[in-house]
Amino acid sequence: MPDNVMRCSFCGKAKDEVSRLIAGPGAFICNECVVLCEQLIGGQPMATFPPLDGKTDDELLAEMVQLDASRNQVEAAVHDRVQLLRTRSVTWARIGEALGTTRQSAWERFSNEA
């Protein structure tokens, strides 16, 4: 069951787990990820991520849930745009083409919500 908590689209941390969460169109980034981006852009050496096989089952399950919640946020943002486009009479063919799919696939994915 998806939660409705805003989460960083990069690390998956919830809004209450970070100092700041910046909203963008369909995505969020936390202050911690912004710092990592600044370091990367500035050419500073980056810490490596631990390999997945070195993590416990509980760690992997927790990360999986966070990533899924981020995906749900992005999916909700896509649905919002489709709904708005349909109110503007944009065709299913154009929506499908923009998403790299067929008109029929776009209709099947979104028509119950448009």
Structure keywords:
unfolded protein binding; Znf_CLPX-like; protein dimerization activity; 4 helices; 114 residues
Describe it:
- The protein is mainly α.
- It folds into two domains: 1-46, no CATH class; 52-113, no CATH class.
- The protein is built from four helices and two strands.
- It has helices spanning 31-41, 57-87, 92-98, 103-110; strands spanning 21-24, 27-30.
- The chain has a two-stranded antiparallel sheet.
- Helix 3 packs across helix 4 (103-110).
- The relative contact order is 0.13.
A few lines on this structure:
This protein has four helices and two strands. The chain has helices at about 30-40, 55-85, 90-100, 105-110; strands at about 20-25, 25-30. Helix 3 packs across helix 4 (about 105-110).
Number of separate structural domains = 2
> What's the SSE pattern?
EEHHHH
Can you count the beta strands?
Answer: 2
Helix % is 40-55%
